[in-house]
Amino acid sequence: MSPVWSLGAGLLLVLLWVRHRGLEAVLVHHRWVFVCLFLLPLSILFDVYYQLRAWAVWRLHSAPRQHAQRVRHIQAQVREWKNEGSKRYMCTGRPGWLTVSLRVGKYKKIHKNIMINLMDVLEVDSERQVVRVEPLVTMGQLTAHLNPMGWTIPVVPELDDLTVGGLIMGTGIESSSHIYGLFQHTCVAYELVLADGSLVRCSPTENSDLFYAVPWSCGTLGFLVAAEIKMIPAKKYVKIHYEPVRGLRKICEKFTEESKKKENSFVEGLVYSLEEAVIMTGVLTDEAEQSKINRIGNYYKPWFFKHVEKYLKADRTGVEYIPSRHYYHRHTRSIFWELQDIIPFGNNPIFRYLFGWMVPPKISLLKLTQGEAIRKLYEQHHVVQDMLVPMKSLEKSIQTFHADLNVYPLWLCPFILPNNPGMVHPKGDEAELYVDIGAYGEPKRKQFEARASMRQMEKFVRSVHGFQMLYADCYMTREEFWDMFDGSLYHKLREQMNCKDAFPEVYDKICKAARH
Questions:
Q1: Is residue 70 part of a domain?
Q2: Do 140 and 166 share a structural domain?
Q3: Full domain range(s) for residue 40
Q4: Model confidence at 100, in pLDDT bands (50, 70, 90)?
Q5: Overall pTM > 0.85
Q6: Strand, helix or coil at 303?
Q7: Are residues 126 and 219 in the same domain?
Q8: Which residues is 237 bridged to in the sheet?
Q9: Consecutive H or E run containing 146
Q10: pLDDT, tens only, 280-298
Q11: Is-contact 246 370, C-beta < 8 A?
Q12: What is the CATH number of the domain that holds 76?
């Protein structure tokens, strides 16, 4: 029998089985069937299209020439909205399913959609060490563009599909953030189209109030059309040291100690239980011991979090050299550890060698095809949250995560939080060391109830002067939200720039208690 006939017969059997079980039952209880047969191939086509497009745009140098024209088109749409009487709020026309956030925003159906087709790298300025990009440029696209030139950006948030716009209007973090801060702290200028249709540039010295108010505003002050981001010289490898640590107090002490060392280019922790973790530190280098090079990003390699767990199980330290771009996107193939819940056998060596090159499925496609049953199932029995808390509260925070959620692994990522104006800053007058605690997976706490449990978590985070990343489900009241975030500058600018009739308040856009 020819391969084509074999494939056809196999697909026919699968379709008959789906018809027998019912499509919804298969999508809920055997989602891997749909993901492997349809979403993985479709994700490959998406990637190929965008890579070819980025290559063609750069080779033809069309992006800088077309950028101004595209911005004028956005301005024209805003002026048209004004001429129509400003009857509805505005928002970007990008479909909600295309975003990496798991939140389902229904506001796009009732707001005026402004089409923003800005997805190109505009300029690499080696003298200023700045790259100018459009807001829909992704992290995978940007590192692929800069690395061959010998450059990278100081903070490369983990997943390939995260966009510059999302990381500025929301936030972004990586294991280098203990030196450079959050993604917003590596940006030197923004360009926005405001509610009156005007185009403005802002930086720490030009329209500085707007510059500091834009991060975390979720597109409620204007439309981002370009950003300038610092660059640093790229090196070939990250020399990474793995150290298993046992005992919660020792875990917190070791992680805090390493996070304070500026000689560490990268610091990261994976907590596998309340008393077990692996602390990783990395240093950028151009030299490597050939026998210790681990190209962890290759499709047939074990998922990174599983690879790290081997050091914990063997109770031994280790040193490896990981190619820099592989390191920057080390959690991408397994979407941290979320993919194990979608494709349970995804880390099996046979699957990796045969189909690993197709992994991961696009998060946007997972959202598009999840259906109401899966969405409700995930909402009630699944957690995807990042809480940013002061490093001094780390031990108490992990205990709280364990009591309220009991989700493992937990991701620990340190960052320095400068005392800049805006929605997020330390309580005191000085910069302070914070840590992002990421919880992704199914809570094992027996009494877990999504709304009640997350409200308890949010209350704790507020009590230690921490912050919740706004891509995730937020259950706070308006008063609680503005108790967590400093809205003084944000509200002042919304008043000054006549945003109140043009854009919803950030709370109304992201919180479940207010969302349409």
A1: yes
A2: yes
A3: 3-61
A4: low
A5: yes
A6: coil
A7: yes
A8: 285, 323
A9: helix 139-146
A10: 999 999 999 999 999 999 9
A11: no
A12: 3.30.465.10
